[in-house]
């Protein structure tokens, strides 16, 4: 390698310059970049100098980046990288720990402490343990893998060793996130293996009587129920207390995908919309969403660590270690693992419960400002009452001769905001999801002004 440690000061100076250039441009740059072509450079036989590399990044890469780290990127459910987590993430690379086996670094204990603090933050019992993942999709995959191990155990089969061939299981859900369906496919159960339970009227939440009837009629030896907190479009929450009672009655595994919806617990507490989530067998959380840590960072929690471990552990002499606790490589997909708990630990320390709650509250209030304007506007219809951070709306066809997708294209082309489509009760709609710590009321007003010009 031609770069030495002596070059580190140069690298740090360049990093700080690139950081300021990017951050100072966040308000002004197009939220969705229009410069998407590959840089016109070819793979060099001999590496270029650091100075040339740094300049290339500044002139060719930075201009093509989106402002997804800023206050008006409202597509999908996108968090930003808060300043403390950004600093901690740089240190993660500097430290470059492999949080795999434990026994040689404090990093393992710190990941355990961070998981325990997340349980404390969300008022979940400390009987939950788990692991950091690359995101909610990977956490949902671990959920399916652990639930299928549970199903196998009920039938005297070790799925990790023998596979699913002889396991008989039925899966139920009302409005699973696409990543949940992807996970069913990845785990070999099949994307079409789940049976839909009807939703409550005008909502995406699960109808309890329909679930009870389905489980009662089910002949499969094992059952898995997948619930949502909250659904990605309607932000609807299932009734976890009622669902968990039914699951207990039928010995069914209950997984709750709470990727971003768990953060609502900081506002209304454990008797609010997430009431009863603590009875789940497993829960998915996503820190790169509403905790605003950098990608990629999700969490899988379960009260059945031995089942997760049985699913992920492989004995190999060269991997034998001296660790006392559970080795994280045996609780997830990757053997070698980034120290991705660290930016979360730093965020929890740096903001505290109060600071994190304030961010969530601010986003909910900002979404309410947008929803209230849309509700009064002649050009747009608010299609669902906004109760969290996602606003659903569509053009009023009598006043605006544009489809939802045409509106999105125009708005995104303005470079002032980035929105993504959705579907509400069979009709195409526009979704605005506000999850970034740096969103200001001025950002919301700016977007409202642009909506008004359509
Ligand atoms: C409810 C829910 N589950 C899972 C995911 C997938 O998350 P990720 O992209 O972090 O894998 C999302 C993303 O929006 C989500 O909203």
TrEMBL record:
GO terms for molecular function: transaminase activity. InterPro entries: Aromatic_deC, PyrdxlP-dep_de-COase, PyrdxlP-dep_Trfase, PyrdxlP-dep_Trfase_major, PyrdxlP-dep_Trfase_small, Pyridoxal-P_BS. The keyword rRNA-binding does not apply. It comes from the Bacteria. It holds the Pfam family Pyridoxal_deC. SUPFAM superfamilies: PLP-dependent transferases (SSF53383). Its cofactor is pyridoxal 5'-phosphate. The keyword Transferase applies. Keywords: Aminotransferase, Lyase, Pyridoxal phosphate, Transferase. Belongs to the group II decarboxylase family. This is Aminotransferase class I/II-fold pyridoxal phosphate-dependent enzyme.
């Amino acid at each position: 390698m031609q770069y030495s440690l002596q070059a580190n000061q140069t690298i740090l100076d360049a990093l700080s310059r690139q950081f300021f250039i990017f951050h100072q441009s966040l308000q002004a740059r197009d939220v969705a970049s229009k410069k998407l072509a590959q840089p016109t450079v070819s793979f060099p036989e001999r590496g270029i100098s650091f100075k040339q590399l740094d300049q290339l990044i500044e002139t060719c890469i930075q201009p093509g980046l989106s402002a997804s780290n800023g206050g008006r990127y409202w597509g999908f459910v996108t968090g930003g990288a808060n300043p403390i987590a950004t600093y901690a993430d740089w240190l993660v690379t500097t430290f470059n720990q492999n949080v795999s086996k434990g026994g040689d670094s404090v990093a393992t204990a710190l990941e355990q402490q961070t998981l325990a603090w997340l349980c404390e933050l969300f008022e979940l019992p400390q009987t939950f343990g788990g692991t950091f993942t690359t995101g909610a999709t990977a956490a949902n995959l671990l959920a399916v893998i652990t639930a299928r191990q549970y199903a196998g155990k009920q039938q005297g089969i070790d799925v990790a060793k023998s596979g699913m061939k002889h396991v008989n299981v039925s899966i139920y859900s009302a409005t699973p996130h696409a990543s949940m369906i992807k996970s069913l496919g990845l785990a070999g159960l099949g994307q079409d293996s789940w049976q839909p339970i009807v939703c409550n009227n005008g909502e995406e939440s699960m109808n309890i009587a329909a679930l009870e009837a389905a489980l009662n009629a089910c002949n499969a030896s094992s059952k898995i129920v997948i619930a949502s907190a909250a659904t990605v479009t309607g932000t609807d929450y299932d009734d976890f207390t009622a669902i968990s009672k039914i699951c207990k009655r039928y010995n069914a595994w209950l997984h709750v995908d709470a990727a971003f919806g768990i953060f609502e617990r900081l506002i209304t507490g454990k008797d609010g919309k997430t009431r009863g989530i603590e009875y789940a067998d497993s829960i998915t959380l996503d820190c790169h969403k509403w905790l605003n840590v950098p990608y990629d960072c999700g969490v899988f929690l379960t009260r059945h660590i031995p089942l997760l471990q049985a699913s992920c552990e492989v004995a190999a002499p060269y991997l034998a270690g001296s660790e006392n606790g559970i080795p994280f490589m045996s609780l997830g997909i990757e053997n070698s693992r980034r120290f991705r708990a660290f930016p979360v630990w730093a965020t929890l320390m740096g903001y505290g419960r109060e600071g994190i709650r304030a961010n969530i509250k601010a986003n909910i209030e900002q979404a309410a400002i947008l929803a209230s304007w849309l509700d009064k506007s002649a050009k747009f219809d608010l299609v669902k009452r906004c109760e969290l951070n996602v606003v659903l709306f569509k053009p009023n066809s009598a006043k605006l001769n544009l489809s939802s997708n045409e509106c999105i294209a125009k708005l995104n082309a303005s470079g002032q905001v980035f929105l993504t489509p959705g579907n509400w009760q069979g009709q195409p709609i526009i979704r605005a999801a506000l999850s970034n710590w740096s969103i200001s009321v001025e950002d919301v007003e700016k977007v409202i002004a642009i909506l008004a010009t359509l």
